[in-house]
Amino acid sequence: MTYRSVVLVLTLAAAAGIAAFALASAAAPKSTGAPAADAHGWAVPRTAWGDPDFQGVWRYEAVIALERPARFAGREFLTDAEIAQTERVEQDQEAKRLDGVEGEAVGRQSVAASPIRGNEYNSFWQDHGRPRRVYKQTSLITDPRDGRIPYTPDARQAEARAAARYGVGPYESYLDPDTGERCLTDGVTGMMWQGPNGGHNQIVQSPGYVTILHEEYRDRRIIPVDGRAHSNVRQWFGDSVGRWEGDTLVVDTTNFLDKTHYEWASTWTRTSETLHLVERFRRVDADTLEYRITAEDPATFVRPWTAVIPISRLQDGTKIYEYACHEGNYAMPNLLSGARAEAKKAAPVRRSLGSEGGSR
Amino acid sequence: MRSCLTVLFAVLGIAIAAPAPAHHAFAAEFDAKKPIKLRGTIAKMEWINPHTWIHIDVKQPNGKVERWMIEGGPPNALYRRGFTRDSLPLGIEIVVEGFRAKDGSMRGNGRDLTFPDGRKLFLGSSGTGAPVDGKDGKDR
Predict the structure, then answer these.
(1) Residue A131: which of A21, A24, A4, A25 has the closest Cα?
(2) pLDDT tens by residue, B47-57
(3) Chain A: residue nearest B81 by CA?
(4) Given A69, A329, B1, B40, which is the most exposed site by the fewest CB atoms within 10 A?
């Protein structure tokens, strides 16, 4: 079987999976536990010690905005025609990628027409792997019904500030870039489904524990699933305790360390001390993990919000690689020197007037 | 077809979305108003995280050689696409298009990377070789 055939089969498989997941999502199963087997005879696999088995490497491959775009206002699902169109675009892009027509592949426009944001790298530099999967949802956020993050007014302003300064600065010191640019982390909130430089997640289970290794930043979580209570130690990733509700793994996380004075690329990924995060992992078919996340934090949101995120299982044998981010983070000196060069260009008059006093 | 797709992207709002939030913001490091196109020979390949860097020697019209550093994708992504340590041997000639560093140094990001005869690197399925498609002219 040629690679192209494999891609076609995967595409068709993805298309077939759409309806199943959309139905599963639409049913909004708050209940836990799944039937012993679905219509196709598939049942949630179990570990040797009887827990639902999530082990393997997973990656978010869908094309769904976190917040519902304005053009979909009032609509939770794409129409059949929109789904078909989106699938055609995805397949066309994949064909272009395989044919070497890089400019249009993975949705990036040409250099000439570049608005640059989102057009920095073509698919040569980024691993999209297989064609992205198309689902029915118009946003990952399913609650509130408008599909938007229910920010407090202050948090909304913080989000606007973060968006305005991303890539722009000011960059006076190494503390100014966002936590990801500093090779620290993009946060636990998006860990399972973000990571353009390495969005793979490997789940390993042992009796009483679920461990998740995320490739980018090599973030990892060792989650006890043994009925213990939260500890009182505050950490960047908080304190997670898990429990099984039927076939659903529920992970409850509190005791986050407040680093909100750091810059984060997205405000919703910040973790204030009052954040309470509940994640629900549930396998809905052999290749799809339904990852449901609910964030509650009066410091940032006026009410809790929930996103339902389909995550794909990658083939057996898929490896996670190292991501020694500080090994060669040339971006840090480069962006600081870039900012210095821009400041020099912007302030020649000040220097000529000898008004450089009051150095930082 | 391309304009049709552009319309589709606009209508559906897919693919051309907000920039991915990590690892670093392009605009902090590179200048979108300074596109570069360099032809040079590979002098050094750094397989490092979070991004690879390719060092190339670019011969100027006056005979002087400039050493440029080009930022590439993360090593894990390149490896998954079939890129190995032997894929860009020292001394071979490549053409890089991208954008120059904001500080004006001889650094840039590499957006497109081709051999001088137009072959793209490591596209197509493994074992078939990268196609010579000649289609990229419209994309510049």
Answers:
(1) A4
(2) 998 888 999 99
(3) A127
(4) B1
| Helix pair angle (A80-99, B2-12), 10° resolution | 130
Q: Which residues of A touch B26 (CB under 8 A)?
A: 116-117, 120, 167
With CB atoms and an 8 Å threshold, state whether B124 touches A98. yes
How far apart CA A161 and CA A267 sit, in angstroms, is 10
Q: What is the ipTM of this complex?
A: 0.73
State pTM to two decimals.
Answer: 0.79
Partner-chain contact A85 B8, CB within 8 Å: yes
Tell me which residues of chain A, numbers 165 to 194, contact chain B at a CB-CB cutoff of 8 Å. Answer: 166-169, 171, 177-178, 180-181, 183, 186, 194
Sign of CA dihedral B117, B123, B127, B131: negative
Please state which CATH number belongs to domain B25-134.
2.40.50.1010
Domain final residue, candidates A135, A156, A171: A135
- What is the span of the domain harbouring residue A22? 1-29+78-135
Which two structure tokens, joined as six digits, stand for B11?
A: 């209508």
- Whether residue A295 lies inside any domain: the answer is yes
* Cα–Cα separations (whole angstroms), residue B134 to B95, B97, B106, B115, B116: 15, 16, 29, 13, 12
Torsion of CA A84, A86, A87, A92, to 10 degrees: 130
Nearest residue on chain B to A121, alpha-carbon basis: B111
Residues A161 and A299 in one domain: yes
Which positions in chain B touch A330 (Cβ < 8 Å)?
51, 53, 69, 71, 107
A10 lies in the same domain as A143: no
Question: Domain extents for chain B?
Answer: 25-134
Number of folded domains in chain A? 2
